[in-house]
Amino acid sequence: MQKTMTNNAVIYVNFSQYDNTGRILDYLTERFTYVLHFSFDHLRLKNGRKTNLITLYQKGHKPKQNTLYSLRTPPYLLFLSLPLVGILMIFQTIKHSVLFKKTIGPSVFFTVNAFPAMIGIILRTMHIVTHVHYWVWDYFPVKGPDWTLQIIRYTYLIFDMIALRLSDKLIFPNLRQLRLRKSLHGIKGDHAIIPLGCSKPILYSSKQKNVIGFLGMLKSSQGLDLILSCFDQVLKHNPNIRLEIIGSGPEEEYFRMKAKKYGNKINFYGFIENQNMINRIVHRWFAGLAPYKPIMGNESYFGDPSKIKVYLSQGVPIITTNVTEYGALAKKNKFGITIVYTNKELLKAIQTLYKQQRTYQKNALRFASSLYYKNLYKTLFRFP
Predict the structure, then answer these.
(1) Exposure pattern of 243-259 as b/e (b: 16+ CB <10 Å)?
(2) CA max distance for the chain
(3) Are 142 and 299 in contact (CB under 8 A)?
(4) How far apart, in whole angstroms, are the C-alpha atoms of residue 250 and residue 140?
């Protein structure tokens, strides 16, 4: 028989771009009376949020938010400054967690990243928190063309190994992640498989739509280059189609420059924190782009694609590749089209979804009904 954690408080540490991915922050504020949320801007993106924040959520009260110290550096010092950023994270999280315990009492610690999980283990050793829950969202292959990135990923792998062995509960978003971690490190203790969830699916509009969209981190491995390299041909077939892009990332300026010639046919929203606002924008699209690039070192091979969940919850069919398990799922459940990573395949998929919007929208919503976050997350804080 499973036992639910009785603690009424949780300390939640994440990075700003992913704070409410899968509606996890919403769930925590619904599940716990008190939530102390640390949000760190570790990537320090030009068009992202430029502060670290600490927010106290208490049921029935307006959230209390304060800024934490942030280390801003020129882009060329980003790599060299990471150790200092990590040290700041450790000391600020420990300091405010100690104060939180004095005021509220014992709490559990929750994160989706290996480095914050290490901080949680320190807090547990200090008896500031009672349990550490590590939801293993990511795996970053060490091999890659950039030696600085290889160093960062190797260091992260060490943190990950320690967090996997010392956390009280491990949660994996899919079987791929679980099998990978078993082969790399071995796993002890309690673990579960819980995929990322999405908003409650809402009825689609039967009105013909002419917007295609992309949501997520702006970097080459996400496949945004593919649509930009053939957008001339997209417009040639359908002059009324527009492209909307939500998100920020290390290659944002590159993508903005590449899209500049299309004027108002392509709109960049930048980084948006509010999930409901994201949903309202996505709901207008007839297709959501998730053409992950099939290259060595792409971390998406083992991840759970949260952008796809957002698309489906809004009745938006997807265009994706076989990098994630959603390539096969899209084929099986017909809620999108799985392509080979070529302009020709992408153009064909766009035309198909544009002409058959209603059929694919229905299938998207049908599949999304199984991903509602309130149903998926019920066992996040349970032990056997």
Answers:
(1) bbbbbbbebbebbeebb
(2) 64
(3) no
(4) 16
DSSP 8-class letter at 256: H
Beta bridge partners of 68: 52
What span, in angstroms and rounded, lies between the C-alpha atoms of 334 and 330?
5
AA identity, residue 223 = G
**Could you give the CA distance from residue 110 to residue 112 in angstroms, rounded to a whole number?**
7
Domains detected in the chain: 3-194 (3.40.50), 211-370 (3.40.50.2000)
Structure tokens at 142: 């060490």
For 16-67, the pLDDT digits (tens) are: 888 999 999 999 999 999 999 999 986 656 555 668 999 999 997 989 999 9
How do strand 382-383 and strand 3-4 relate by DSSP bridges?
antiparallel
Span 329-347, pLDDT tens digits: 999 999 999 999 999 999 9
CA–CA dist 284, 26 (Å, integer): 23
Residue 382 corresponds to which tokens in the numbers above? 């349970």
| Tokens at 381, concatenated | 């804080």
Give me the torsion for CA of 138, 319, 19, 148, rounded to 10°: 50
Structure tokens at 189: 């203790």
The angle at the Cα of 156, spanning 303 to 28, to the nearest 5 degrees, equals: 55
The strand pair at 285-290 and 318-320 is best described as parallel
Token output for 310: 């957002």
Strand-strand pairing, 211-215 and 190-193 = unpaired
Global pTM reads 0.89
pLDDT surpasses 50 at 221: yes
pLDDT tens, position by position, 107-155: 999 999 999 999 999 999 999 999 999 999 988 877 766 777 788 888 8
C-alpha–C-alpha distance, residues 131 and 32, integer Å: 15
Going by C-alpha positions, the residue among 214, 213, 210 that lies closest to residue 235 is 210
